Amino acid sequence: MDGSVGGTDRMILRREGSTGWMLFNNPARHNAVSLDMWDAVPGILGAFEGDDDIRCVVGAGAGGKAVVSGADISEFAEKRSTRDTIAHYNSVGERARRALEACRKPTIAMIQGWCIGGGVGIALSCDLRIASDDSRFGVPAARLGIGYGYAGVARLADVVGPSFAKEIFYTARHFDAGEALRMGLVNRVLPTAELEAYVRDYAGRIGANAPLSIAAVKRCVDEYLKDPSERDLAACQAAVDACARSADYVEGRTAFMEKRKPVFSGK
After folding, report:
1. What is the pLDDT of residues 253-262, one digit of tens each?
2. Could you tell me which of 264, 214, 246, 226 has the C-alpha nearest to residue 105?
3. Pairing mode, if any, of strands 107-111 and 128-132?
4. Closest CA to 93 of 44, 42, 49
């Protein structure tokens, strides 16, 4: 089922079995993200989080040429030119990225074609990144005079390491899919013709596993990425304990003994 969200047809919500698709739908501009598109992201993720049938969320771009080619610079003069409008624009974009990071369900960025600027930020906010071999990556801030705050720089450095993060920002150049894989920016690179089928299968594979087990791992990794003084280890243990008390744990054991595929309920 498809639908636009947040009053814009440039963001599409799609449900396919256990997978929720969030599509950036501005192909005429290679899916450059406008302010209304950023603003729609938390609502889409909230809809998926409230749907027990959705077990995995995929972010992708419409048109096959880009996932996101960056921000829609054509609206900067109106919506990102004064101190107040810059602050508002940045807060809306950061709220979208935080919603992706905080999504309780596993997330995959399916990257085909251009993944530039804000597209890299979106991809980094997902749990996994799977790219086509014709994908291109870059952060052009240094060519536009844009300053990146600590959160955005740290997000990239956490994934690729400090040296590669500096190279990406300093050079503002485009990196191909092979370079992105070697840096650890993406998890997998597939031939373009195979990408969508692979991601569908991968999301379905994740969706067939025990949701509480996945949620516990996601919580532990999220806490690991925090400063040690801010980690909530009690919440991690609580998530693990919830798995031990769950009907899914019984189902997993029973299915193993009966040599069949388990059917998990998330309870």
Report:
1. 999 999 999 9
2. 214
3. parallel
4. 42
